[in-house]
């Protein structure tokens, strides 16, 4: 049932880690450039974006660390390994996005009441470079299914939006001198970050609670297994996502004859593979004994 899944996942996560390392280095470099530019131009907008990018450096570093921790081998004390580290990292990054959204909103409210003087030309130049940097990083992280990489992706999306807002604000300020455009655009960025944070928190909480993944339907799986000849009933079904990303399942299988289990089991496993379940633990039970077992629950049956 296992095949070579671990080799594939190890290679895949190593690939994610390389992308995260590149993104981390480039983000750190540009955060320093933006900080210096903000100080020279006396631009609060650029300093705020530098702070935002600095938070991205922390987020990417956390994602890279969690990705490496997840590759540690399983042992007797951690039989599933350290794969959940990626989920915890993604959840922390989701809360960080909410914090950033709140901070940007707070800053924007302050700027609306007293818009600071901004040097439009330098904001346009550094904002444009920042946008290019963020778009490069987004192409590296786009399409990754690993939740840790997607958490980092959302942080960089926030940066890219911040850069777009900075460029637009810089252009408006440069040509019209209208300062409130900067905080007005910041509200939009904050809203998008809050939405991205909510998606991450919802998904990671569901995985940590071992909820049934959206990609699979418990009733469909149950119906497929019951269709196998010799099966009387299926109960105590549990479906969840394993730390390495595969789908796990456990169930009690009532069969008409225990002597047929060796023939039935391969059929069940094949049905489950087609449903996307790669790791299954199935307990056979004689349908004649079900009367004794019916009142039991998962822990005592």
Structural overview:
With 301 residues, the protein is mostly helical. It has nine helices and three strands, in the order H-H-H-H-H-H-H-E-E-H-E-H. It has a three-stranded mixed sheet, with helices on one face. Helix 8 (261-274) links the parallel strand 2 (247-255) and strand 3. Helix 1 runs antiparallel to helix 4, helix 3 (84-113) packs parallel to helix 5 (147-176) and helix 3 runs antiparallel to helix 6 (181-208). It is elongated.
Average predicted local confidence, pLDDT: 81
Number of helices: 9
Q: Indicate the structural class.
A: mainly alpha
- Got a strand count? 3
The N- to C-terminal Cα distance equals 26 Å
Shape: elongated
Whole-number radius of gyration?
Answer: 26 Å
Beta-strand content bin: 5-15%
Features:
single chain; mainly alpha; disordered C terminus; three-stranded mixed sheet
Secondary structure layout plus pairing:
Elements: H1 5-41, H2 44-70, H3 84-113, H4 120-141, H5 147-176, H6 181-208, H7 218-226, E1 231-241, E2 247-255, H8 261-274, E3 277-286, H9 290-293
Parallel strand pairs: 2-3
Antiparallel strand pairs: 1-2
Give the structure's gist in a few sentences.
This protein has 301 residues and is mainly alpha-helical. Helix content is 67%, strand content 10%.
């Amino acid at each position: 049932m296992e095949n070579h899944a671990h080799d594939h996942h190890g290679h895949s996560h190593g690939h994610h880690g390389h992308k995260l390392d590149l993104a981390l280095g480039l983000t750190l470099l540009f955060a320093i450039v933006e900080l210096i530019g903000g100080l020279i131009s006396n631009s609060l907008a650029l300093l705020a974006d530098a702070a935002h990018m600095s938070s991205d450096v922390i987020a990417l570093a956390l994602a890279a660390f969690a990705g490496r921790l997840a590759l540690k081998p399983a042992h007797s004390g951690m039989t599933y390994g350290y794969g959940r580290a990626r989920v915890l990292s993604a959840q922390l990054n989701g809360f960080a996005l909410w914090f950033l959204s709140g901070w940007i909103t707070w800053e924007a409210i302050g700027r609306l009441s007293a818009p600071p003087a901004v040097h439009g030309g330098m904001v346009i130049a550094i904002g444009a470079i920042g946008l290019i940097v963020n778009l490069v990083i987004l192409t590296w992280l786009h399409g990754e299914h690993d939740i840790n990489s997607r958490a980092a992706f959302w942080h960089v999306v926030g940066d890219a939006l911040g850069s777009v807002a900075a460029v637009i604000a810089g252009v408006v300020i440069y040509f019209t001198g209208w300062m409130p455009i900067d905080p007005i655009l910041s509200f939009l960025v904050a809203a998008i970050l809050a939405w991205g944070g909510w998606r991450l928190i919802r998904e990671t909480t569901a995985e940590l609670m071992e909820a049934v993944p959206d990609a699979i339907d418990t009733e469909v799986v149950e119906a497929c297994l019951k269709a196998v000849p010799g099966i009387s009933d299926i109960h105590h079904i549990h479906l969840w996502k394993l730390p390495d990303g595969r789908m796990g399942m456990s169930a009690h299988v009532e069969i008409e004859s225990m002597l047929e289990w060796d023939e039935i089991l391969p059929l069940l496993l094949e049905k489950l593979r087609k449903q996307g379940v790669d790791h299954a633990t199935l307990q056979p039970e004689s349908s004649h004994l079900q009367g004794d077992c019916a009142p039991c629950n998962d822990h005592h049956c």
